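Journal club prep — side note

Before the paper discussion, L.F. wants everyone to see what a predicted structure for a comparable chain looks like in token form. Sequence:
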Amino acid sequence: MDLGLKGKKVVVSGSTAGIGFGIAAAFAAEGAKVVLNGRTESRVAAALASIRQRVENADVLGVPADLGTSQGVTAFLKQAPEADILVNNLGIFEIK
């Protein structure tokens, strides 16, 4: 399916595993330029390698940063200051 996303820059927070990873991989398969995010360099690197293995010619960038902190947001925005599409797959919850 062609969703018309070729060349669009997509940021997916919390995208090193699970639903976020699946979303990032789907955007990459559609030809989007995808920015992956996770809290650690090793998890981001593993996610990038996995998408590159699954999607031929994937245009992906990984930005390790804890978006739950102001320092992490600042560091993230230095590497990915803009996007056409944002998927916020990051959340904080408290079990009650």
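L.F.'s comment for the group: Residues 41-54 form the longest helix (14 residues). Keep this in mind when we get to the figures.
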